[in-house]
Design goal:
By secondary structure, this protein is an alpha+beta fold. The protein is built from five helices and two strands. The longest helix is centred in the N-terminal third of the chain and has 18 residues. Pfam families: HTH_43.
């Protein structure tokens, strides 16, 4: 999955993005704004990826912390069939692939 010569298709990119974001949400309390700052991903991309966690069995909740609709943070309630330990141990590789893909898309 992580060889240097491996071409990542759209589905694989979406899967890696979900793993990447799920790990970030599991490690710290994040909302869309903090995720945007951290990942440099567009808001809509983040919203779509978080909404699609269910496609791979990850369940996420939004914990409301104020009066405004978006005051709060996302929390992983279950990783489902995904091994969070595996994601944690491969996080730097996943992050590198996400960054490489983003750089490639900026150039092209």
């Amino acid at each position: 999955m992580f060889s240097n010569n491996y071409v990542i298709n759209k589905s694989q990119k979406a899967f890696l993005r979900k793993l990447y974001l799920a790990h970030l949400l599991d490690e710290e309390q994040h909302n869309l704004l903090s995720l945007q700052k951290l990942t440099q991903m567009p808001r809509r991309t983040l919203q779509d990826a978080i909404a699609a966690f269910v496609d791979i069995g990850i369940e996420v909740d939004f914990v409301q912390q104020g009066q405004r609709h978006n005051d709060g943070y996302y929390r992983i309630s279950t990783w489902g069939p995904i091994s969070s330990a595996w994601v944690n141990s491969h996080f730097e590789q996943i992050k590198q692939h996400i960054e490489t893909i983003a750089e490639f898309e900026r150039v092209n």
